[in-house]
Amino acid sequence: MLRLGIPLALVALGYGAWRSYGWPGVAVVASAAVMWALLHFNRLLAILKRAAKRPVGYVDSAVMLNAKLRRGVSLMHVVALTKALGEPRSPKDVQPEQYRWTDGSDSHVDCEFQGGKLTRWELIRPASDGATA
Hints:
By secondary structure, the chain is of the alpha+beta class. The protein has four helices and four strands.
């Protein structure tokens, strides 16, 4: 819906600006659209720069990641949450994509993405040996 809605809204805004203010109105709408695109691109670069500084597939707490995940969030949103790229678990360019994030206690979250959106995830914790202090 958004893939079609945003361009249609931009065209409608451009047409309305042209009808009301002529070419200067179109220039304002075009400038606003470029600014919006640059803000999103800047956010994407900041997320990827932060993720580049961490090991692939590492997360501070798999339990906290599991609690924060929601169905339908994008892969980029999950990368922003974990501050790391996920460890690929599926062949390249095959749907659904599967990634794993592991914490220091060997707990991990396996996530499945269909079309870049999170469809399911599972928290897996290592079996405890029963020895507690």
